[in-house]
Design brief:
Length: about 80
């Protein structure tokens, strides 16, 4: 049997979502410590996108939905997507 494909969960930069919100979101939904969450947030800010983790498809899909719903609930335009690793 082949290992199932893995997917990166990627956050996309925008000019409106506060950096603190992004750091908190990464810590909350991806279990990253503050320092790592801050590094990912800065990657998103400077490079336009940043990977928050690599997961099997079902988990990646769930994380994308959770992040997008949390951002909308808090009136932020932050977008999250998944890409095959």
């Amino acid at each position: 049997l082949k290992k199932p494909p893995m997917y990166q969960v990627v956050l996309l930069n925008d000019d409106f979502t506060p950096m603190d919100f992004v750091v908190d979101l990464i810590m909350r939904f991806f279990g990253k410590p503050f320092e790592e969450a801050t590094k990912i947030m800065l990657d998103i800010h400077h490079k336009g996108a940043g990977s928050c983790g690599i997961y099997p498809r079902d988990i990646a899909e769930t994380k994308v939905v959770q992040v997008n719903q949390h951002a909308r609930k808090n009136s932020h335009p932050l977008k999250c997507k998944m890409e095959k690793d």
